[in-house]
Design a protein that fits this description.
Elements lengths: L2 E9 L2 E7 L3 E6 L5 H18 L4 E3 L10 H4 L10 E6 L3 E7 L7 E9 L13 E3 L9 E3 L14 H8 L17 H13 L2 E8 L4 E8 L9 E2 L5 H5 L1 H8 L6 E5 L7 H16 L3 E5 L3 H12 L8 E10 L4 E6 L19 H9 L1
Parallel strand pairs: 3-14, 3-15, 8-13, 13-14
Antiparallel strand pairs: 1-2, 1-5, 4-7, 5-6, 6-7, 9-11, 10-11, 11-12, 15-16
Helix pairs in contact: 4-6, 4-7, 7-8
Length: 361
């Protein structure tokens, strides 16, 4: 079940804040304004649950985040030593966490208060996926040895997953096109759209427990020789884990992606916005941290095409404002309507293009 509300108290840059989440959540704003802090709050919960098998303690070092000692996590403006994380999901399921502050420790004992079966929240399910901003780069071969069921925080398991299950894993109906149902076909279909004719070839190297990745260019009357991933554009491989994560989703899944636009040209970014919308429309919950107006516009256009109810899209704009003795983090929540229009445009919210044009003309 998807998360409807996230409340954070005395954690890093936030003294007290609550986010109402939807199926598609876009976090935008300047660097150092709190976007990553929201994601880290969720990852801290997930990491601790995986590490201990329950939430009896919070671990700040692990698979997803390395945040330091408790004293580095407590908000500088906090009036007390109490950190708190509250997650409310659909069907009246909730999880409240109050770590016991211990300044010099990175494992904090934790008290929880729950309503319903909190383990059904998508953040704690085995299908959870998190892709960091630092993802796999083009290589000749990729390891196929993994004890994890996930794609990996860098997408390092994505190619192994695709080689093993690409022609067996059925994507959700809303993501199916051209009468095809399998994951590998649709990954190639999106590669073709984004990069004009590219498709991937995966070959297992059994003796080395590895997978070979190569690409071909396919036009209407010609198929090129296959090329090593290292000889093909960087962004093509960099986006692969994102395509796999978004196309393999199931209703209720949670996928968190940082900077999906990295190394992509504007057209590919806009198309990726469309795919993000389709994955959310399939019933998944997507959280995107982005600086790309092309991703945003891809989402707006897709909503206008009625691919997703506008009410299921939540936009958050983070900014730091000088209030005298310190900087204060503010979070705006612009509203998107079904026509793709946004009701408010705070200063700094994807307005640099207009600002540059104003200076030019």
């Amino acid at each position: 079940m998807i998360i409807e509300k996230l409340h954070v108290h005395n954690f890093k840059c936030f003294t007290d804040i609550e986010f109402e989440l939807g199926n598609l959540n876009l976090l935008a704003g300047c660097n150092g304004c709190g976007k990553s802090t929201v994601i880290q709050a969720l990852l801290l919960i997930r990491q601790s649950y995986e590490q201990f098998g329950n939430l009896s303690a919070i671990s700040t070092y692990g698979k997803y985040v390395n945040l330091g000692m408790a004293k580095e996590l407590l908000c500088e403006s906090a009036n007390d030593l109490n950190m708190q994380f509250d997650v409310v999901a659909e069907k009246y399921v909730s999880l409240k966490m109050k770590p016991q502050y211990d300044a010099e420790n990175h494992i904090l004992m934790n008290s929880i208060d729950t309503t319903g079966n909190y383990e059904k929240i998508n953040l704690l399910k085995t299908t959870f996926e998190y892709l960091s901003a630092e993802r796999i780069v083009p290589q000749t071969v990729y390891s196929s040895i993994s004890s994890s069921s996930s794609l990996g925080t860098s997408g390092e398991n994505a190619l192994d997953f695709l080689e093993k299950f690409g022609d067996k894993y059925t994507v959700e109906p809303i993501l199916q096109e051209k009468g095809q149902t399998y994951l590998l076909f649709h990954v190639n279909e999106w590669l073709n759209r984004m990069f004009n004719g590219f498709r991937l070839q995966l070959s297992p190297i059994v003796e080395a427990d590895a997978v070979s990745l190569r690409y071909q260019e396919v036009s209407s009357n010609r198929v090129s020789n296959s090329h090593r991933a290292t000889n093909v554009g960087f962004g093509i491989t960099y986006v692969l884990p994102i395509l796999v994560a978004l196309l393999k989703i199931r209703p209720g899944d949670l996928v968190i992606i940082e900077n999906p636009e990295a190394h992509l040209h504007p057209k590919a970014q806009k198309l990726l916005g469309e795919l993000i919308v389709k994955s959310a429309a399939a019933g998944a919950q997507i959280i995107i941290e982005t600086h790309s107006d092309h991703i945003l516009n891809g989402i707006r256009i897709s909503v206008k095409k009625l691919l997703l109810d506008a009410e299921k899209v939540k936009l958050f704009f983070f900014t730091r404002e000088n209030v005298g003795e310190k900087f204060s983090v503010n979070v705006y929540a612009p509203k998107l309507n079904q026509e793709g229009d946004i009701n408010i445009w705070p200063e700094g919210f994807f307005d640099e293009w207009d600002n540059a044009l104003a200076e030019l003309f």
